[in-house]
Structure formats: C-alpha cells, structure tokens
Design goal:
Layout: H1 2-64, H2 68-73, H3 79-92, H4 97-121, H5 125-132, H6 135-168, H7 172-187, H8 194-217, H9 223-231, H10 240-248, H11 253-262, H12 272-307, H13 326-333, H14 340-371, H15 377-398, H16 400-430, H17 433-436, H18 443-465, H19 473-478, H20 482-507
Helix pairs in contact: 3-10, 3-12, 4-9, 4-11, 4-12, 4-16, 5-14, 6-7, 6-14, 6-15, 6-16, 7-14, 7-15, 8-12, 8-14, 10-18, 11-14, 11-16, 13-14, 14-15, 15-16, 16-18
C-alpha cells in the first residue's frame, strides 16, 4: 500500500506543479501582452501629442513673423487697383481675371526675391543700391523712387478723400487733410512697437476684405464664366490698355523696398537652419494675405461684371469709370441695394488708408537707405506726408474731382515707368554671390525673372510709343504743329534716357562684398 500510495502521490504532485507552472506562464504571458498593449497605446498617444506639439510650435513660429506680408500686400488692392478691377469687369466681364491672377503671381515671385535679399544679406534694397552704384546713380534712383511713391501716395490720398465725400459728404480738400491726420496717428504706433503698426494695418485690410465680400454676396456671379476667365487667357478686342494697366500695377516699387527691410525686424540667428526657417515663415506669411487680397480683387471684378457689364442703364464707357463715379454707377445698377454705395465707400476708405500708411513707411526706408541719414521718427513721417498732401491739395482746390481723375492717370503712368528701376537692381543683387553668398538665385530663377523684367520694360515702351489718346506720341504724330514737334522731341529724348539708364543698371557690375549670413551649421 505504501508503494502504491507513493506511486499515486507522485503523479499528483507533478500535476499540481504542471498546472501551477502553466497558470503562472499564462499570467506572465497576459501581463506581457497587457504591457505591450499599454506600451503601444502610449506610443501612439505620444506620437499624437508630439505631432500636435510640433504643429503648435510651428504656428507660434509663424506668428512671430506675421505682419510684414500684410504691410506689403496692400499694393495689390489699393485705390488704383480697385479702379482697374471695376473697369475690367465693366468692360470685359470675367475675361481678364487671368491677368489679375498672373499679376499676383509675379508680385509674389518678386517679393520672394526681396525677402531673400533682406534676410540673407542683412541689407534692404535701398542700402544695397547705395553701396553698389556710384553716388550720382544712387541719387537718380532715389529721386525716381520718391517720384513713384509720391505718385502712388497721391492716388491713395485722393481715394481716401473720395471715400470721405461718399460717406460723410466732405469736400475733397477736407478729406485730404483728414488723411494727413489719420495717417500720422496710425504711424505714431511705431513709438511703442512696429508690431502695433503691423496689427493696425492688418485689421484695416481685413475690414476692407470683409466689405468686398459682403458686396460680392449681394450680386449673382456666373461661376462658370469666372473660372473660364481665370484659367483660359484671352485678350478681348480693345482690352490692351486695361491689361497693361493691370500688369503695371501688379508690382509697386515701394513695396519691394519695404519688404526687404521689414523682414529684418525679426531677430534671426545666423545659422543655416534658422535662416531657412525664417525664410519659409516669411514666404508663407506673405503668400497668405496675397491670396486673400486676390480673392478681394475677384470680388471687385465680379461686382462690376454683374452690375455694369452690358447694362443698358449704364451710359458711361468702361474707360470713363473712375473712383469719382463708381458709387453712382453701382446705385444705378443695383437700385434695390441701398447699402452698396456705403460699402463701396468703406472699402475704398480702408484700402486707401492702409496703402497710405504702408507707402509712408516705405518712404522712410527709402530715404534712410539711399541717403544714409537718420531723422527723428516724427520728422520723417511729417516730411513724407507733406510731400504728397501739398500737391493733392493743389489739385483738389484748383481742379476738383475732375482734375483728380487726370492726376490718377498720370500717377499710374509714373508708377508703371519706375517699376524696372526697382526690379533690375533686385535681380542683380540676388543673383550675385558677392552679396548673397551661397544663397544667391539659381540660374533658372534668374532667367525667368529677367524675362519678366524685360517684359515690363517692353510694356512701358509700348505705352510711350503706341498708346492712344490725348497727350500721347500717337496724337502728336497725327497733328503736326510746333507743340507736337516739341512733344515728339521730348518723347524721344526721354525714351533714350530711359533705355540708357536701364542699360547702365544692367551693365554695371556688383562691386562690393556684403557682410552676409554665410554660416553653415
């Protein structure tokens, strides 16, 4: 019995031990599997949190660089562009939207080069011109840029005054004086921080875009025709001058100088990674408001296309439409929309005011860069404003609203003619290794941008030689008289000087080495 018992108990002990070890093994396996699941879950949660932390950090970095793009983008939807959009929509419906789109693209490409110059060379465009060209050439460039800024500023001041006349029934000269006061008040924000000035301009632009979008929502837009005009380039009969004016207004010379300086208001470490990150942030920060402003241009064109194109109630030719009569025409086209004229006045007021502030700030940069002088902030603002207010007041008092239309036309011509004098130096400097080091433009970028610059020169030559109308070369050739002969001689002389000076800017080599960020870490 004892042996049997002993034999019987041993298997029982083995069974208990085996069962216990199996249970322990299963427990360990379960714990291991649970740990792995928790670890995998924690890994997914960690990756998710890390992803959003990176997004949050990236947005904070972008917010740090926000501001300069909003100061610059107003060049594509100021009072002059607004008038051109209305004429394009009233005369050719949606057929010229492609011009506005590609004008925006050209503006973006040029400003990207301006960002590169300011960021990688630590010099703005005005300083680069002063350091590279002989003194007399720098002075000529400064005078040309001052003329361009005064011409552009004159357009905005008159636009502001017309908006005040629409909204508050103020006389033209009173609106001009009011713009003087409001601009100086807004510019005074610089005393606290440049960020406050940028924020103020951003809010004004957002208000302007809001009024555009509200007006757009009140009319019916032919979406198919709009997309067709956007995608398919066409040149309708009689649209040449409108297209040329749109292209000519796509690039504001003062905005190029402004952008190259504004990117330096943010502190960036002189390492390759930090510079590249700052470059990406600046480009994105500029492209976003540009796209928003392009949509605002679409709204203006659509408004005119819906109400003024082939409208039997409108007896005015599209070429005679200006800031002074747009409000009345909109009231005639949309009699059921009583708020249309008020919204137009608000949008014109906002666009003109923001453009005046931006232009005045650019004027300060141009004076300091070309002349290498430092004036007190209040004196710079005062001198820049007086340079525009005085001729604007003279025009408003002597010629009234009719004379302001001619002044706007002359201002547009001056702006168009001075664009190459900003783009050509920009292209020369950004493709030079002496200034940009390893950050200079690739060859394909230089070829493409030089093609655009040459195209703009050809456009200006055409405007001088082939433009139709009063006080043009064509009108002088058709009427042979002493006055016409003098006009022809003056046109030829100005044309030769114009082409000759551009050729000199292209030919003159880059002769100085800039203290650029060439640190590669």
């Amino acid at each position: 019995m004892t042996e049997n018992f002993t034999v019987a108990i041993i298997p029982a002990q083995d069974t208990v031990q085996n069962n216990g070890s199996c249970q322990l093994s299963r427990d360990l396996e379960f714990m291991e599997r649970t740990y792995k699941d928790d670890e995998e879950k924690n890994t997914y949660v960690g990756k998710f949190r890390s992803f959003w932390k990176q997004i949050y950090s990236w947005l904070l970095g972008l917010l740090k660089f926000a501001g300069p793009g909003w100061m610059v983008c107003i060049g594509l939807i100021d009072a002059g562009n607004y008038e051109g959009d209305i004429q394009a929509g009233a005369g050719f419906q949606y057929k010229l939207i492609w011009v506005i789109w590609w004008s925006s693209v050209i503006e973006i490409l040029v400003q990207i080069l301006s960002i590169r110059l300011g960021l990688y060379s630590s010099l703005d465009l005005a300083q680069s011109c002063r350091k590279n060209y002989p003194p007399f050439v720098s002075y000529i460039l400064w005078i040309l840029m001052e003329a361009a800024m005064i011409a552009n500023d004159l357009t905005q001041v008159i636009g502001f005054a017309i908006a005040c006349e629409i909204l508050f029934e103020m006389p033209l000269y009173a609106g001009i004086l009011l713009s003087f006061v409001t601009t100086l008040l807004i510019l005074s924000l610089q005393y606290w921080s440049i960020r406050y000035l940028e924020l103020c301009v951003t809010l004004i632009i957002l208000a302007m875009c809001t009024t555009f979008f509200i007006q757009w929502s009140m009319v019916q837009t032919n979406g198919a025709e709009m997309m067709k005009g956007w995608i398919i380039p066409t040149i309708p009969s009689g649209s040449s001058l409108v297209i040329l004016s749109q292209i000519g207004s796509c690039i504001m010379p003062q905005c190029i100088f402004l952008q190259s300086s504004m990117v330096q208001t943010r502190k960036v470490e002189s390492t390759k990674n930090d510079l590249h990150r700052a470059y990406v942030y600046n480009v994105i920060e500029f492209v976003f408001p540009m796209l928003l402003v392009f949509i605002a241009n679409l709204a203006a064109v659509s408004l005119a296309a819906a109400g003024l194109y082939n409208n039997p109630k409108i007896s005015v030719s599209y070429s005679d439409i200006g800031l002074s009569n747009i409000c009345q025409l909109l009231q005639t086209a949309f009699p059921e929309n009583s708020a249309g004229c008020i919204l137009f006045g608000l949008s014109l007021l906002a666009s003109s005011q923001s453009a005046v502030v931006s232009g005045t700030f650019a004027g300060q940069i141009v004076i300091e860069g070309f002349l290498n002088i430092r004036l007190p902030l209040w004196l710079r603002n005062l001198l820049t404003r007086l340079a525009t207010i005085i001729p604007a007041l003279i025009i408003s008092i002597l010629a009234g609203i009719e004379g302001s239309g001619l002044a706007l036309l002359i201002s547009s011509a001056i702006l168009s003619a001075t664009i190459p004098f900003a783009i050509i130096p920009l292209l020369k400097f950004t493709q030079s290794s002496k200034i940009m080091g390893s950050f200079r433009n690739p060859r394909y970028v230089s070829v493409f941008m030089w093609s655009i610059a040459i195209g703009l020169v050809i456009i200006n030559v055409y405007l001088i030689v082939g433009a139709q109308g009063d006080y043009t070369l064509q009108s002088s050739l058709s009427d042979i008289s002493i006055t016409s002969i003098i006009g022809i001689i003056a046109t030829v002389v100005i044309g030769i000087l114009y082409i000759g000076f551009l050729a000199f800017l292209i030919w003159y080599p880059v002769v100085f080495d800039s203290d650029v960020h060439r640190v590669v870490i």
